[in-house]
Known about the structure:
The complex is a heterodimer of chains A (183) and B (177).
Chain A: H1 11-24, H2 30-41, H3 47-59, H4 64-107, H5 111-139, H6 143-158, H7 163-178
Helix pairs in contact in A: 1-2, 1-4, 2-3, 2-5, 3-4, 6-7
Chain B: H1 4-21, H2 30-40, H3 46-58, H4 66-104, H5 109-136, H6 141-156, H7 161-173
Amino acid sequence: MSDAAKAPPSLAELVLTFNYISLASFGGGLSAWSREVVVVEKKWMSEEEFLSILTMCRILPGANQVNVAIFVGAKFLRLPGAVAAVFGLTFVPAVLILLLGAAYFRYSDLPAVQDTLKGAAAGAIALTLSMTFKTGRKCLLSAIPWTFFAATFFLNGILRWPLFGVLALTAPLAILWAWPKAK
Amino acid sequence: MKDDGLNLIHVLILFSSLSLLSIGGGNTVIPEMHRKAVESYSWMNGKQFADLFAISQAAPGPSILLVTLIGYKAAGITGAILATVAMILPAGTLVYLVSRFWIRSADSPLHFAIEKGFAPLTVGLMFASGWVMSKAADHDWRAWLLTGACTLLCTTTKTNPILIVGGAALIGWLGWV
């Protein structure tokens, strides 16, 4: 259950927080950043609440991180909250990417930038892997969740099954496993 | 430019329809974006599309901002704004409605079961995406070493992640990866 929230954030705090998450994520790894801020730093959501929302946001249409921002913003301040979070997530990065894009079309090739981005990407992948370990330690506590974890990774990462095929197989089983037992 | 008006209409139609089709995330409709932007409308060539994709992956912010760049190339700043809003609004509206339903259902057993059951699946998908990203980024042994060192640092210490990614970017800038 969502017991993690303390004082609900203001609209301005949602804008600034998602702006920060977004700007910090150069090189990628936006999911890891969102978790770092939403769960660890701000304690707006519990680990399980955040993780389940992350997968729902992947199933739903739209960019995953925009969807996460909508869920977090709407949880506290409904529609204005969702709009504020999405605005924070996208506005400044959109301006930055336009500057980068304009520079790209002018100079067409930017080797130093590409080298820098390659390094940043290596760091961002590390954040994603590290999030796997950190969250795995908390929610992979017995053989069954371990099996779900391994099956999902194997089907999606190694066999490269599309997300829908993977979840069509694993999600019903996982929900069945997690269904609260009748007393 | 006289084509700007027409391009704006194409931008609006293309991205607002791709928005609801992007089930599973923005990356799933990138082949279709490529087909339209490069082949149908000739807004750019294939190399430019690939480079814009790389910029959008590495730049801060959601990688869906690729559409901002495509819109910009198609119809200037207006095109950039229109593409971004068109890509976010339709799917965003749906997600908002789902999120309201999700919050209202907080006490149902299904909500509980999804929250508990999806956690291990999400960790598996995260691991898969880290794995796939590192293969897509064409990691050689130096990049793997850097990723490994950063992962260790981030998992076992409380180092601010900005320092880790910034440090990795600096190492890249120096030409070491």
